[in-house]
Amino acid sequence: MLIVRVANFVHASSGGLRTALRELGRGYLAAGHQAVLIVPGPRAAEEETPYGSVVTLPGPVVPGLGGYRVLLNRAAVTKRLERLRPDRIEVHDRSTLRWLGSWARRAEVPSTMVSHESLDGLLRLFGPGRSLGLRAADRLNSRTVRAFDSVVCTTGWAEREFTRLGAAPVRVPLGVDLARFAPANRDPELRHRLAGPDQVILLHCGRLSAEKEPRLSLATLAGLRSAGVDAVLVVAGDGPLRTALMREALERRLPATFLGHVADPLLLAALLATADLALAPGPIETFGLAALEALASGTPVVARSTSALPEVIGEAGVAAGGTGAAYAAAVRGLLERTPGERRAAARAQAERFPWSGAVDGFLSVHGLSRTPTGRVHVADPAVSH
């Protein structure tokens, strides 16, 4: 079966979505599929990768989003899809690619929309207010449900904006690379470079943009230091707020190190395993791959109570409100546990989310399953063509 995925807002320094696309594609290939990914870029290109063929079509940069591009030329996307003749289409952006549901229906191709963001949450943060935002989100989500054969959500939290409409999305949690991210990556030399021997290392790993609320990590650091906790903050990530955050840290004399986007996978794995605690301040995260990678590395997480992350981190972390004081209190609570207890609980929670489980879940949504030999058969003939 040829599964064609189409996604926007993906580039070399993007995080969770890029990871999910890569790992799902790798899993589809291992299960006996062909996998093609269509994404926007500065120019047309094609390449073969370990996670399938990647087709880049020209797309403009969206102002103010740190270099993200979108596929706006529907004719070019349609032409490529017609050439590929997919057996399944999987769409990873419901804000600008919903029209692909109509294309799939005309082409008689089973279609799936994967909901990676909370439209309800985004409209509440940046829209006209809660009541108007809810109504707008409901209208747009209803169109998504009508346009696609199935909608996938990664958590129960993410499902709720669809289930309140009477829709029945399929829940498929994402996964984590348990071999790549592991407590054994803890690096004493790296720790020595980042902090003093008795300092607490907080790690913020994620995009520095408004919807992620990274300023809360600085507020957490300030609250801890005011309470006498000798903590430092390491920020791994880039985005439009980076300059402002660096300036604020300097003005407030907060010991924060900004690494920018960490492209070296070995360094990223070492950072996640070496930190004492990870901070995930985003208020509308629908899953939180960076937090799960921290858990796999043996590092507990303080997550925003308004997001889906409490579902993911379980007892391996703490959910907190959106203030520096609340986050600082959560950090102090975690620090009361012994390092061994914290790290063992984090790793055990992450082991509940292998990528193999996510791949099997997505295959099931597509009406496919893998056989013991890795060959794939159609589970429901009614959805094949």
UniProtKB/TrEMBL annotation:
UniProt keyword annotations, A-Z: Glycosyltransferase, Transferase
Domain of life from the UniProt record: Bacteria
This protein's record includes keyword Metal-binding: no
Short name of one Pfam family: Glyco_trans_1_4
Glycosyltransferase subfamily 4-like N-terminal domain sequence ranges: 15-180
Any one biological process term the GO annotation gives: carbohydrate derivative biosynthetic process
A GO molecular-function annotation: glycosyltransferase activity
Record has Glycosyltransferase as a keyword: yes
Annotated protein name in UniProt: Alpha-1,6-mannosyltransferase
Organism: Actinoplanes regularis
